[in-house]
Design brief:
homodimer; alpha/beta; Arc Repressor Mutant, subunit A; Dna Topoisomerase Vi A Subunit, Chain: A, domain 2; 2 domains; 6-stranded mixed β-sheet; 3-stranded antiparallel β-sheet; 17 strands; globular; ATP-binding (chains A, B); DNA binding (chains A, B)
Chain lengths: 361, 361
């Protein structure tokens, strides 16, 4: 976590670079890593995918480029003020707020433009969006399990135990999970669960209590806040992270983004990704072994599986075997399809067997 | 709220009806209100839209009809057992679980089929899905405001104050909000807010504290649990409910479903709808008055507005005026576009002015 004044300093430094370039008679420019799949490389040390050596330059040597740097300068001023006042805002608010700027050339034409600029600033300064106090539009996950934490809110500190002090809905993590401090826990492992139906099944069946498991609800493709808290649980509490999702290519991508990060946020991999996270299921081999109710793969599923075979994140023996099996059987199954064996099958049989196989239990 | 044994009795009674019809030499049948827009009528007494007098009959006089009643009988048995064991399940689990039934004719062919059947059972028995212990797939809203409640969980009671005992994410309401008892409150009014970005803005700006406002996050089209808690807050705490959404036809539908219920759940209007709920904005007249950043109406927006003019729920002077104004100006604006006047405009100016106009403050 970067402090507010550090984040502010990084921004001011960037603006100062533009100033110095001007003052030195140079055309101002900003250099960024090229953000395409071919420029993602595996970082042995951290175990996640990050940008490679190829870079792109934004220069004021054209009207378009000059306008981009002007917008960057206005945005830097807004963010620096926001940090000084200890305020925060959403990406969408920033886009709208630009309409109030005095220089119409600095106003954004679309939200894609302002979103991209904030990502550029993250990359160049090495400060995360959260530390600029930019909030996401959508809220993150809920937690349920033997974890006691302290959240620093604008209204003071709150100490919350994620089983004893919450309702069945669990603890709603805040937009910036770095406002949380872990106080105490009895977690043996954390299970990051894709769907709300399965999250509720685990909680109803008392799986978190029986196995001292922290249930993290991913809510489909997980928000940054959810990936961040997952990483912090792993790194700070030293517990295994297991991802439990549907048995289809879109869910493998969810696992991929938890474990290895995404192309879009490769600059944040060391902040968001948990390379030690492992995949519990649903595996294609489970569809066969447990004869799960399934749907045939659609063309889009097949294309997605084939593209995963090319994806550096999935180039392991395990994933190649599973994905080829799935293409072979032509089927996909949802995690809730385990209910075809009864409502307790997932907690009494499936998860204990899988976790035992994986050496977690 | 129906008790578990009442819900179970209603289901058993329905199965007993089939039995009696058989025993009396009649062909078993089940009669339901016809569920189309033309069969929705305004109920003066409750102020919400409910089904009219037209009915449809499911009879075992064809193979298809007999199969439908067989599936109903199996589902009734499953639900009755679930209630007896104090368990619960999702609609998707029910669909998958039917694969374990001994009679393959009773198994569902698609989830639409099992979903529709559960709705039919709700209508015929007068018991809500929640009281059958069917959980939704997706979780409901969060609450933030001066409300202390007690939630009955499977792990005992939890007393939670929705400002003092929660983090910035707020209190996550459980799937069945009837497990909540309101203990104490200082709420002057409740604001049901469409987007996460605006919900977070209100909480960051301390609007809930400054105005003793309960902020309910609708998360787009609200889940049943969210509409239910909104109604209970209104009816039991006697506080005004205000809906704050984007200024487009899809958001007016969100308001419509909170206030008047939907065609799909017209049998639940008296349980879910809050006809006293009023619309704060964004109103088309706000787009003009505050010169808000806007997007042009797409063809689909225009069609939706025109269909709202035909919708009985929107046939009031207020809505006709607003919708016609919007068609005239050809623009729509999001609630976060208020940020074009600065981040505090919504809490310092817009909401206080609108709430004063409406007589809430």
């Amino acid at each position: 976590m970067t402090t507010e004044s550090d984040a502010r300093d990084e921004l001011i430094d960037l603006a100062a670079d533009f100033y110095d370039q001007f003052a030195g008679g140079e055309i101002p420019e900003m250099t960024l890593p090229t953000r395409t799949k071919s420029n993602i490389v595996y970082d042995e040390e951290s175990g996640v995918w990050t940008y490679g050596d190829r870079t792109s330059t934004r220069s004021a040597n054209s009207v378009g480029g000059a306008r981009k740097l002007l917008k960057a300068a206005y945005t830097i001023e807004f963010l620096a003020d926001q940090l000084e006042e200890d305020r925060s805002s959403t990406l969408r608010e920033l886009y709208y707020l630009s309409e109030s700027w005095d220089n119409t050339e600095a106003q954004f034409n679309s939200q894609d433009e302002s979103n991209d600029l904030v990502e550029d600033l993250e990359i160049v300064t090495g400060v995360t969006r959260e530390d600029f106090h930019m909030r996401p539009e959508e809220s993150g996950a809920t937690l349920m399990g033997p974890l006691k934490l302290r959240e620093q809110t604008r209204r003071g500190e709150r100490e919350i135990h994620c089983q004893e002090d919450v309702g069945e809905g669990g603890y709603q993590i805040p937009n910036n999970p770095d406002m949380i401090e872990f106080l105490d826990h009895d977690i043996e492992f954390a299970l990051a669960v894709e769907t709300g139906g399965m999250r509720d099944r685990l909680v109803e069946n008392g799986f978190d209590e029986a196995y001292d498991c922290l249930v993290i609800h991913l809510k489909g493709q997980p928000a940054r806040a959810t990936r961040r808290i997952t990483k912090r649980v792993h790194d700070e509490l030293d517990v295994p992270i297991l991802v439990f999702a549907d048995g289809d290519p879109w869910s493998y991508r969810i696992y991929g983004s938890v474990a290895y990060g995404s192309i879009k946020s490769a600059h944040l991999s060391t902040y968001l990704a948990t390379p030690e996270a492992r995949y519990v299921g649903i595996q294609p081999e489970d569809i066969v072994e447990y004869d799960l109710p399934s749907d045939p793969l659609a063309d889009s599923d097949i294309n997605a599986l084939e593209s995963e075979l090319e994806d550096p994140r999935f180039q392991t023996d395990y994933w190649e075997e599973q994905i080829e099996l799935q293409l072979d059987i032509g089927k996909k199954s949802e995690q809730q399809s385990l209910a075809s064996r009864g409502l307790d099958f997932v907690t009494d049989t499936y998860l204990p067997e899988r976790l035992d196989e994986m050496g977690v239990l």
